[in-house]
Amino acid sequence: MLQQILRDMYIDPELLAELNEEQKQILFYKMREEQLRRWKEREEKARTEEAMLRKTARRKQSNGKHVQWLHGKDGEVWVWVMGEAPGDKPYEQISEELIAERARQQAQKEAEELWRQKEAEITKKFRDAMAQEKARIVAEKWKVEIEDRKAAKLVEEKIQEELKKREEEERQKGEEQIRQQEEIRARELYLSLKQAQQHSQHSDDDQEWEEQLRRSKAADEERSHKARRARDEYRRQSLRAIQKGRVAGLSNLFKGTSLNHDQETKLNNDSPSSLLSLTAPSSKIWERPSRPFSQEVIIHWFKEEQLPRRAGFERNTNRVAPWFHGIISRQEAEELLMNKSEGTFLVRVSEKIWGYALSYRQQSGFKHFLVDASGDFYSFLGVDPNRHATLTDLIDFHKEEIITSSGGELLLEPCGQQKNPPDYSPLFE
């Protein structure tokens, strides 16, 4: 199963959903290793082909099209660097001019805005004064005789001229103040921009890019940490299997194992945990589909391939192991483990792969590990690289050795049957 996943570089979403976080991380690590191996293979092939092409190109005649670089007096390729050639302005001068121009434009923009505000204030001020004076004159002229209207008009014109003169003086004064403020602001902006250039070369867009880069680096570090942890787990388990001396390769010892005729006929009536014995191997040739697609096919697979290998049996007996269950769902497994203590476990026949699922009760919930049985050995898919000759070997091994270093799962207590007949009975009918 694992070899097929690595060959196709694809895992079915339903199968992926059955894996816990540790299994997913180690499976990702193995797929990444395979990607790197293929990439190196392609790069080596590309380098070889490129070398062959260069070798072939050298053999061609020299009259083909080619590019010829312009050389200087020193015989080297001629290069022109802006700002260093004769007549070019130095980079520092160009930078100073750009900063000064930028400061001048900014100050001019601010001065124009300030002048618009000032002009609006002046206009409003003298418009109000003119209206008030005009209203006063209109009110007074009704009090004077008709012959005095000409004199009143002359007075009005004189007052208007005086107000216009004062308005013009106010405008000139305001323009001078704005001009002085513009010059001062231009110098301030120039110094500010110069200081900003010296301390930081990044604009607002650069700061946003830096924030994205920081988040990207943090995500890369998190992925690297997970991959490193998965790699360490993979190596630790490999070393542990070598030290324990339980790595499989012994499955051939069990291929010829079968029960006698009396054990193949009925259940042992002395105990509810006894098993209907194995049937004789089918005379028809069993061709296993690429993946299980129905319970009937899974039952047939179990009878053809797993019974001869004593899957689900206790060691050296013909009794079903108390941890073994039939084709039950993840939800049913969690219901069986619900009120159990931490370390309680069961093994159920999987509907997703040719193999099993080990359901484990931990303090904060449940974990499920897929056990690949598609080859001539048993191993956890994506978690444990160790290969065990029998399913019982795998269970006994992890009664002493943890499954993952991060979870520290030890198989302490088997979870037995709660139904009568047992849920595995269809497998042995």
Automatic annotation (TrEMBL):
SUPFAM superfamilies listed in its UniProt record: SH2 domain
A Pfam family matched in the record: SH2
Coiled coil location: 149-184
Biased composition (Basic and acidic residues): 211-235
Coiled coil in keyword set: yes
Residue ranges annotated for the SH2 domain, each copy included: 323-415
Region annotation (Disordered) ranges: 193-235
Entry keyword set: Coiled coil, SH2 domain
Superkingdom of source: Eukaryota
InterPro entries reported in the protein's UniProt record: SH2, SH2_dom_sf, SH2D4B_SH2
PANTHER family: SH2 DOMAIN-CONTAINING PROTEIN 4B (PTHR14388:SF7), T CELL-SPECIFIC ADAPTER PROTEIN TSAD (PTHR14388)
Protein name: SH2 domain-containing protein 4B
Species for this entry: Struthio camelus australis
